[in-house]
Amino acid sequence: MVSQILEIVKLNITLEWRQRQSILAVLLYVLTTTYLSYLVFNGIISSETWNALYWIILIFAAVQAAFRSFQNEADRRFLLYYSLVPPRVLVIGKTIYNFFYLLVIGLVTFALFLFLLGNIVADPLAFVVLVVLASAGFACILTFVSGIAAKAGDNPALPAILSIPLLYPQVLALSRTSIRALTGFSWSVNGPVLLVLLLLALVSLLLSYLLFAYLWRD
Amino acid sequence: MKAHWWKALGVVLVLYTIIFGFLGSVPRLPILNETIRVLYFHVTMWFAMIILMIASLSYSIGYLRDNSPFRDLKAKEAALTGMFLATLGLVTGSLWARFTWGAFWVNDPKLNGTAVTMLIYLAYFILRGSVEDPQKKARLAAVYNIFAFVMMIVFIGILPRMTDSLHPGNGGNPGFSGYDLNSDMRMVFYPAVIGWTLMGVWIMNIKVRYTKLTWKLNEQLD
Hints:
The complex is a heterodimer of chains A (about 220) and B (about 220).
Chain A: H1 2-18, H2 21-40, H3 47-71, H4 76-84, H5 87-116, H6 124-151, H7 158-183, H8 187-216
Helix pairs in contact in A: 1-5, 2-3, 2-5, 3-5, 3-6, 3-7, 5-6, 5-8, 6-7, 6-8, 7-8
Chain B: H1 5-23, H2 42-66, H3 69-100, H4 109-129, H5 134-157, H6 159-162, H7 176-179, H8 184-221
Helix pairs in contact in B: 1-8, 2-3, 2-5, 2-8, 3-4, 3-5, 3-8, 4-5
């Protein structure tokens, strides 16, 4: 099973590499929105605004990115996968792949924010750890929900309205913790929050593992 | 007539709630004053909503097992009736907040939980609306219902306990159990929960039967 999961991850990375415009489009989306914030919030960025903007831009980029990962293959490639691997392997593989995808987007957004909106992060390491946890949690929920959205047809608003309410718990915990990374982070105080974030990701991964088989068959 | 006793019970309990909810004795407390009576309506409607959402969840799980269109119909109608009760609970809670906290809506974990619940179920109905094929619609909706319900429980159950809240029962504010030392309020509260739940089940029942009749009629016409 592990080798099959790795195969799926590898297959997705290869496919992504062959048609690079997909990830480049999401990165460009992040760049344009960050630059927009740079123009609009010209010089009046406080750490609270910085923090709030980061998570809002990241959430919309993540929803787009994750939806792309299923959009093109709802009909055709699903059949190929169906003959190759059991659905549970597919959803785990896709989630791992989306985790790396979202991690890249999160880190690039972080770098852009540091460059354009000012380096006001007191503890960059803590912030990066939060970005890693966010990528894991987002990937677990978004992979599954974009599977639903891709199956449901081409309603362009569907991925956002289905997934964003489900992301509220994580974003709330993340933004309240990351503001402390901007001002001064204590690992012992914030440890439990990091643990809760990890548990949230695990719960949603477990649910997608259990439910994906039903979503998938036609 | 045998099968209808619970409807009569529901009507009696709701009438009892309304009469004793407004006329019964309540503890005299500063700030809260008479607004404490909202407990009989706001909190009980939310209890009834949670019960209906759990019913919807169990129909969705059942649907994934046997693919019966009736289970899907019941899951949908239970969620719809739950949303109706949630809206009523939201309005009553909002009015209460206006007179005790000074605003209709505040940024509070418990209220954010409410918002996320309603947004999730609205998304559930949008999802149902955007799929044509009835079997596919039922399957996707069932899967989303299960996934969303667990996330909702996590949100309204766990996160408010992590931060402070203004809402009674959280963050050092006394909850319902703190007020009812004379147990007068309990005598109205629990019947009210059962009453609103029975009313909800009745509404759901009528809507399910109506849709079933429509299906039958369409079959005869075809």
